[in-house]
Amino acid sequence: MTAFNNRVSEVVEAALTGGEGPYLRERFAEGEENLGKAIKTFAKITVKPGTRMGYHQHVGDFEFYYILSGEGKYNDNGTVVPCKPGDVFKCGDGEWHCIINDGDEDIEFVALIVATI
Amino acid sequence: MTAFNNRVSEVVEAALTGGEGPYLRERFAEGEENLGKAIKTFAKITVKPGTRMGYHQHVGDFEFYYILSGEGKYNDNGTVVPCKPGDVFKCGDGEWHCIINDGDEDIEFVALIVATI
């Protein structure tokens, strides 16, 4: 058993990937010894109002978003759809996505990136 | 892209694995075509007050719990510790665990089971 209750949070500038504004990434665990070979990222992301994550492609992996709180938009390969708590989106290997917070409260979601094996 | 917003929820009788009471399991996606080869389960679990999940061993896989809401106990290989929102626990391959809801509100958590590869 391992409890990961002192996790490192990091502020990521969305501008680095073509977005706008900062977002918070809290990785639940890190390293192959904890996550295994397949899981690249298992984290909670917090996107402030007015922040747009960079629209990006997944290559060699795929990602799930599980929306915990807040409402905004999810860009699915160029098609923008609403997102709300409880929604689950998958961005497949080779696909593109991002989250846009055009609401007035934080959007929090669980992000799970899995290597394509 | 795939949006999984019409997910099947199932009520699981904890008694089947030596526990007590029912809990709700809402799988975010199912099948290797959606989850890949490594992910066995990615789900939200809701454990009602008074419910004790069966204390069980993981063999051939490992599991993360990410606590979303509620407070109770986490049995870590026989050692019982408190759990609260934000906590992350890992049950490694070969280890044992369960959740006990001895509080007065639902415990909700994200469960991620990953094959050991």
Present the secondary structure layout.
The structure is a homodimer of 117-residue chains.
Chain A: E1 2-3, E2 9-13, E3 22-27, H1 32-35, E4 39-47, E5 56-57, E6 61-69, E7 72-76, E8 79-83, E9 88-91, E10 96-100, E11 107-115
Antiparallel strand pairs in A: 2-3, 3-4, 4-11, 5-10, 6-9, 6-11, 7-8, 7-10
What does this structure look like?
Two copies of one chain form a homodimer. With 117 residues, the first copy, chain A, is mostly beta strands. The first copy, chain A, contains one helix and eleven strands; from the N terminus they run βββαββββββββ. The A-B interface holds A 1-5, 7, 28-29, 34-39, 42, 44, 62, 64, 66, 68, 76-77, 79, 81, 86-92, 95, 97, 110, 112, 114-117 and B 1-5, 7, 28-29, 34-39, 42, 44, 62, 64, 66, 68, 76-77, 79, 81, 86-92, 95, 97, 110, 112, 114-117.
Q: What key phrases describe this protein's structure?
A:
homodimer, 117 residues, 1 helix, 3% helix
- Which residues of chain A sit in consecutive blocks of at least 5 with pLDDT less than 50? none
Tally of alpha and pi helices of chain A: 1
Task: Specify the helix fraction band of chain A.
Answer: under 10%
Number of DSSP E strands of chain A: 11
Major β-sheet strand ordering of chain A: 2-3-4-11-6-9
Largest sheet of chain A: 6 strands, antiparallel
Assembly type of the chains comes to: homodimer
Largest interface: A-B, 39 and 39 residues
% residues in beta strands of chain A: over 45%
If you average the pLDDT of chain A, what whole number results? 91
Rounded Rg of chain A = 14 Å
